[in-house]
Amino acid sequence: MDITFRVAKFFVCAALICAGTATTQTGDRILTFGSPITIDRDRTMHVGEKFEVVNDSGVFDSGIYRRLWIKPIGPQRTNEGSFQSVSAKIDGRDAVFYTDRDGKAFDIRIVTEAGTLPRGDHVIELSYTAKHQFLIYKGFEDLNQDVTGEWPVPIENARVELMFSQGVPTGASISADTGTDSSFQFDCVRTELSSGWKFETTHPLLPGNRLFISTRFVPAGLFCLKHQRRRLSSDPAKSPSTTSGVRFRLRFDRHRSGGIHHLASCAQER
Fold first, then answer.
1. CA torsion sign, 53 to 57 to 63 to 68?
2. pLDDT, tens digit (0-9, with 9 covering 90-100), for 204-255
3. 67 near 107, Cβ under 8 Å?
4. Smallest Cα–Cα separation from 169: which of 222, 214, 238, 231?
5. From residue 139, how far is each of 34, 46, 135, 269 by CA, in Å?
6. Are the C-beta atoms of 55 and 120 separated by less than 8 Å?
7. In the prediction, which pLDDT does 219 show?
8. Contact status, residue 203 vs residue 243, Cβ threshold 8 Å
9. Contact 83, 105 (CB under 8 A)
10. CB 217 within 8 A of CB 172
11. Domains and their CATH numbers in the chain
């Protein structure tokens, strides 16, 4: 890794640590954070992120520092999570970006050609592909995704669109929550789309809070089968705007370890 990025990363991290208290006295924030995610039949995820930041007091002077967590190999994931095809723009123009692996994290730093981010409002666009994000159990598959990441500034509004290139798989269920891993609430507005779902927050996210989605696909191996486009139910009893039961079940499975074998052949991550 380039030594310049190491030095810049040190100062960015230091700024983010201090920003937790600084943002209570400044106007630095993320106004909107939108993320359309499209999932292919082979489980490849095409992720777009577009967010408008306010850099009035200098929290983002050293650039936008986006951290993505690398999902580890385990009984339900035969390959380590990975990120490729990264691209970025600032205010509609191609940006300079640096990538680096730091232990279990994949870091992306986005700056202008001058190596900084000027004061004021800016629109940041980031795109990448993500592979091996699913957990594959014997009878189902789970996708648990931190959509926004944790930031040292508040996010006034966040939304995610989860879509499927071959149509929504049958037997899919999804929920979204806001907060932290230890304290979260199912308070997002849910909209059903022809090829997926959209969730939007109903309140600003405090520094360190995030938007998180949990999805279950039954049966396992469905991404190796032909997707069938289906009409999602409009019955509120069947399609509530918040599905807490799904998240509790998925969250339990997300933290369990061992005891379940991989599916063979096509159900494995490639």
1. negative
2. 999 999 999 999 999 877 676 543 334 334 444 444 344 444 443 444 344 3
3. yes
4. 222
5. 32, 25, 11, 15
6. yes
7. 83
8. no
9. no
10. yes
11. 30-267 (2.60.40)
